[in-house]
Amino acid sequence: MATVTHELRTPITGVVGMTDLLLSTELSAEQATYVRAIRGSAETMHAIVGDLLDVAAIEAGEFTQISNSFAPDRLVAEIVELLAPHAQAKGLDIAGHVSPEVPALLVGDAQRLRQILVNLVGNAVKYTSTGGVGLRADPTPTGVVFAVHDTGPGIPEGDLRRLFGRFQRGMDAKGSGTGLGLSIARHLSERLGGTLDLHTVVGEGSTFTVSLPFTVESDSAGPEPWLEGAVALVAAASPFEGPWLAEALGIAGGEVALAANAELAAREIEQRDWTMIFVDQAVREPMAEALVRAARRGARVIHLITPAERRAGGTPGEYLMRPVRAQSLRDLLLRAPVAVPQKTEPPFTLDAMPQRPRALLAEDDGVNALLVRTRLEYAGWRVTAVCDGKAAVEAFDGASEADPFELAVLDLEMPKLSGFDTTAAIRRIEAARGAKHHIPIVVVTAADIQPLQEQAHGHGVDAVLPKPFDPDALSAVLSSDIMKRVG
């Protein structure tokens, strides 16, 4: 096993290395996206081979612990950023947070810790359809506990006993993977003198906690009140990044309020004068006018955006890239005073924040989701992405009248509900509401589309497109007569 995995690892490492070199050259944004997708696929293969090699080493008793000093805040940020493209392609929030009480420098096996956490966070992203994933570090009397939270389906009690066994995968698992990740994570945690525990609630999510002992090389200086006097509003729909950002601002000395939706945020904005407002894409567009009024009263508006959102719509003022790094937050806020801007020169206007049409994307393959999402965003759509049919129906049903979906792109073969069954469920919701206009629905599939046309029409599908995804075919659909039904 070890010989075979080493032989496989060598060419895969070459692919990853060469794509990294290619990314360091001058590429257009579109070319860089394609190269990152290639690198992501190669890294997935590399991880699978690595899992097999680790199992071989553990079974052979060839485990060597290497201690070195490392910064836990940097490690958490790097892991979150590594997995952010996959999470964001699925429409998930992903965030990291390190308590200021965690020592600044620890001594331990950082490489093994990284491997454990990448396995856990990667699994959480894989099995979570809506909501998000968060990685948090807090101190313990003997070391640090790292908690990986998700808003996934939870794990039924009957699956818990076999969960940490070899080659075990979740019941709804699709895509790549060996099923070795959790088994390896537990073995490594125990070899490092720690524990790996799980708390899960079906329908709500799971939390994996890794408690490990460490030697402290440099203790934390403790919370520094560098934001005293600031009054901050965090308007973010994210389950982890919003609350953790609010916590970080409060620790820094600010007075902070958190609003998880546009309605709450608009109400908070009018109740007092804020020195700063942090707002994400999900909350921003429905409350554009309230933001403009707040800016004119002196608020410093800072947008929380993903790379895809930046490519699609630009940046209407100050912004932080998601997932937000603690150092990036501090650098931005200290770069300019928190003082009130000139009221005659608001930092942005309504023209800078146009209300773009909203599309629903349901695709369980991360690379395909990235491709389709990018094409839609290039065409001017705001995209809400989910990775199964049930989540797509729930997203459609939960959309507000003020911000409805005006297009749906569905994979044919998805967990829980197929693209056809998802379409039928959406049509039933429309009928129950007495909708005058049907949302255009496009189904994509790797199968031969000709035999599917009649079945698709019977379920209420407007168009069927083949995989690999053809951007010209999508453009033709977006400019066709079915789009005239929107209104």
UniProtKB/TrEMBL annotation:
Which one of the record's GO molecular function terms can you name? phosphorelay sensor kinase activity
Keyword check for Phosphoprotein, yes or no.
Answer: yes
Per its record, the protein catalyses: ATP + protein L-histidine = ADP + protein N-phospho-L-histidine
| Residue span(s) of domain Histidine kinase | 3-216
What InterPro entries is this protein classified in?
A: CheY-like_superfamily, HATPase_C_sf, HATPase_dom, His_kinase_dom, HisK_dim/P_dom, HisK_dim/P_sf, Sig_transdc_His_kin-like_C, Sig_transdc_resp-reg_receiver
Annotated keywords: Phosphoprotein, Two-component regulatory system
Name the enzyme group at the top EC level.
transferase
PTM-bearing positions, type 4-aspartylphosphate: 411
State its Enzyme Commission number(s). 2.7.13.3
- Organism for this UniProt entry: Agaricicola taiwanensis
User: What protein name does the entry list?
Assistant: histidine kinase
**Lineage of the organism:** Bacteria, Pseudomonadati, Pseudomonadota, Alphaproteobacteria, Rhodobacterales
What are the Response regulatory domain coordinates in residue numbering?
358-482
